[in-house]
Design a protein that fits this description.
Rossmann fold, 3 domains, single chain, OB fold (Dihydrolipoamide Acetyltransferase, E2P), six-stranded parallel β-sheet, pyruvate-formate lyase- activating enzyme, binds iron/sulfur cluster, alpha/beta, globular
């Protein structure tokens, strides 16, 4: 059978889709990029916030209204985990729904393929220069604004041997970067009472795939960076000095209402990381306009940002999620105030990002080339597109390298110019 898979949401969902595809391919089914040619239309949904649910529903509706009568429509993932009835009610044409982590059930329901296809690579769908490695799933943290623990359930660390095999498969398929993701990567090992589980995993990965020059850490939890983890990151040759640590706010009063770790804990983690790796690039995200956020709490957030001068900041305006404790919090902040605070925060974030980028001018950085195309034409010269260690795929900036290089090449360069988020580099 030919399937057409549509994936919505975050990188964690992308990894889930790879797992779903691995199960389908092992049963002899093959992907079809053209939905008209597929026998089965599959959607891996996101239900993290209202906007994401709406986007997922629209994608399902679109497939439903344009499909042939003999095409099946199956829907899986976060949205169907929490709102399967809603999906079936709003789009009655959906043939089957599945929750999260039911990838094997999908393949089992389909059974082995009746057709024989030529499958070039049944092991690693979605092979690319940069690959995500999901180290755990689920979350036990109490953040009052977040629906994820309800969708995903308790945190469960991935099996280390399986993760190492996955990493080796990505390396074999040509990946030059592994990006470690989870709801909270620093929770890895907590369910097996190993408080340095992530440090141990990084050591094992570093040894298992020495041919992968970059291993990057996303979604660390404030207060959960241990001295051992910071030390391992600085010692291991292929762990890039980069961390994404969503901090959510810079005022203790707001953090208490969010049931997030205190500023003391956040500072502790940031200090450990910057002490071990002074060159580290820090990425974080903040929520603006959480219920009860006063102007002085917001000013504390701006002061915190000024103090740490984060390389990359993502911000979200608070959006109430039914089913979360914060949904019934009092003190909703007026939307015009939220919009004003959001733009003030983003202006500050851009100023800081821009000055952090300028600090790199005149320094040497390696750039991992990602473009398949010959290059960007900048004022008559061809430039290849890639990223430096300080930029994670999809969320951060880019590096333009003078000349034409192949995708996957790691090019030593000198930074000659800086845009607010991007670098202009010349090979050395
Ligand atoms: S740590 Fe992240 S995934 Fe877990 S509850 Fe908090 S915001 Fe949600």
């Amino acid at each position: 059978m030919k399937y057409h898979l549509k994936t919505l949401g975050c990188a964690k969902n992308t990894v889930d889709s790879w797992r779903m595809e691995s199960a389908l391919r092992s049963s002899g089914h093959v992907p079809s990029f053209d939905k008209q040619e597929a026998d089965l239309l599959l959607v891996n949904t996101c239900g993290f916030i209202d906007e994401a649910s709406t986007e997922s529903l629209e994608a399902i509706r679109d497939l439903d209204s344009n499909r042939r009568k003999d095409q099946q429509l199956w829907v899986a993932g976060c949205l169907t985990q929490i709102a399967s009835e809603r999906v079936k009610k709003e789009i009655p044409g959906v043939d089957h729904t599945f929750g999260v982590e039911e990838w094997d059930s999908i393949a089992m329901k389909l059974g082995p393929s009746q057709e024989k296809y030529d499958i070039p690579d049944a092991t690693m769908p979605g092979a690319s220069v940069s690959a995500y490695l999901k180290v755990s799933d689920g979350c036990d943290r109490p953040c009052t604004f977040c629906i994820i623990p309800k969708i995903k359930g308790q945190m469960k660390s991935g099996d280390q041997q399986r993760l190492l095999s996955e990493a080796k498969m990505h390396a074999y398929a040509g990946a030059k970067e592994l990006v470690l993701i989870a709801q909270d990567t620093t929770a890895f090992g907590e369910d097996t009472k190993d408080n340095d589980g992530l440090a141990h995993l990084l050591e094992a990965l570093s040894e298992a795939v020495p041919e992968v020059p970059w291993i990057r850490l996303m979604y660390a939890y404030p207060g959960k960076v241990t001295p051992r983890l910071a030390e391992a990151m600085s010692r291991l040759p292929n762990i890039v000095p980069y961390v994404d640590m969503p901090l959510q706010h810079g005022s203790d009063a707001t953090l208490r209402r969010m049931k997030r770790p205190s500023l003391r804990k956040a500072n502790q983690s940031l200090e450990l990381l910057t002490k071990e790796m002074p060159e580290i690039a820090l990425r974080t995200t903040f929520i603006v306009g959480f219920p009860g956020e006063t102007e002085s709490e917001f000013s504390e957030l701006l002061d915190f940002i000024e103090e740490w001068k984060f390389d990359h900041i993502g911000a979200f305006s608070y959006s109430p999620q039914e089913g979360t404790p914060a949904f019934s919090h009092e003190g909703f902040v007026d939307s015009a105030v939220v919009a004003d605070r959001y733009s003030r925060l983003m202006m500050l974030a851009q100023d800081i990002s821009s000055s952090r980028t300028k600090e790199l001018v005149g320094k040497r950085v390696e750039v991992l080339i990602e473009s398949e195309e010959p290059g960007e034409n900048i004022e008559g010269d061809l430039f290849s597109i890639g990223r430096s260690f300080r930029d994670a795929p999809e969320v951060d900036g880019m590096a333009f390298v003078k000349g034409v290089f192949k995708s996957g090449e790691l090019v030593p360069t000198m930074v000659k110019g800086a845009l607010p988020y991007d670098l202009l580099c010349y090979p050395v």
